[in-house]
Design goal:
With about 290 residues, this protein is α+β, with helices and mostly antiparallel strands. It is about 35% helix and about 30% strand. The strands form two sheets. A six-stranded antiparallel beta sheet has the order 1-2-6-5-4-3, with helices on one face. Strands 7-10-8-9 form a four-stranded mixed beta sheet. The longest helix is centred in the first third of the chain and has 25 residues. It is found in: Cell outer membrane.
Length: about 290
């Protein structure tokens, strides 16, 4: 190439290089209006290419049947995000992405409902669940191993209003007099026993019922599902029952009229093999003495 040609060609190379760098930087930017779900941040070094948020139903794998994922539809406020890694030389493996999100959810008291580990031709999949902020949150993660130029992963997050039951004082008294007990679904965060605002509303009705029937004595009994060890569940249910009892006493009811006990997973009222069944088993019962 002649000296003149090199001089003419050099600015073109510089311009092309600058354009390539600008394009690479632009490719690492999030799609317009996209943002991480508040509960889960992205894997470091990735960006959002697709973002959707609406009320929808999403299928989540909850087990395996005949070698295929068994799925359950969960309806609620859904956020769907597709991420691409920024650097092909620094991108994590599909397993690293799965473990990252599993650890993040477990760190806030959640659980791994299902996992299919990556293998040839399959990036794997995991389903996670956590109760937080008065809601039940389901997470589905699927790494994409055939994406280009870098690999991707897709995240579905569905927020469902947790099962709640704030029963009026009159209803409490009717059930206790008729059946001798009533089951209340007082929401607690996973592994916790502190009363949330929804739980305090239920306690207010318990206090009102006891004040309107001065001869009534009750046992407050905690129950859990079968996730975790029997010993841990029993201890947790006892702490939840004691937490409710302490709040009732703080509301002005004589502690001598109350007792607290925890039975953990010993007395299920529904099938623990389904999420619906486990939700029903996580309860506080008031039992007339």
């Amino acid at each position: 190439m002649s000296l003149l040609a090199r001089r003419l060609f050099r600015p073109f190379l510089l311009a092309f290089g600058a354009l390539a760098l600008a394009s690479a930087a632009l490719a690492a930017e999030d799609a317009r209006g996209a943002k991480d779900h508040p509960l889960l941040t992205r894997y470091p070094g990735s960006h959002i290419v697709e973002y959707e948020k609406n009320y929808n139903s999403v299928e989540f794998a909850t087990g395996t049947a005949n070698g295929e994922p068994k799925r359950k539809a969960v309806e609620g406020d859904a956020t769907v995000l597709t991420y691409f890694h920024n650097d092909v030389d620094k991108q994590p493996s599909a397993l690293q992405v799965i473990r990252n999100y599993q650890n993040a959810v477990k760190a806030i008291g959640g659980e791994v409902v299902y996992e299919r580990l990556p293998r040839d031709g399959d990036g794997g999949e995991t389903t996670l669940r956590v109760a937080t902020g008065g809601k039940e949150v389901w997470v589905r993660l699927e790494p994409g191993i055939f994406s280009a130029p870098t690999q991707s992963y897709k995240l579905w997050v569905v927020e469902v209003a947790a099962m709640q039951q704030v029963v009026t004082a009159n209803k409490l008294l009717d059930e206790l007099n008729r059946n001798g007990f009533i089951a209340l679904y007082i929401p607690f965060d996973t592994g916790k026993w502190d009363l949330k605002p929804e739980g305090k509303a239920a306690v207010a009705e318990i206090v009102a019922a006891l004040k309107s029937s001065s001869a009534l004595r009750i046992s407050i009994e905690g129950h859990t599902d079968n996730v975790g060890t029997a010993a841990a569940n029993k201890a947790l249910s006892e702490k939840r029952a004691q937490s409710v009892m302490a709040a009732v006493v703080a509301g002005g009811v004589d502690a001598k009229r109350l007792a607290a006990a925890g039975f953990g997973q010993e007395k299920p009222i529904a099938d623990n093999r389904s999420e619906e069944g486990r939700a029903k088993n996580r309860r506080v019962e008031l039992v007339k003495k």
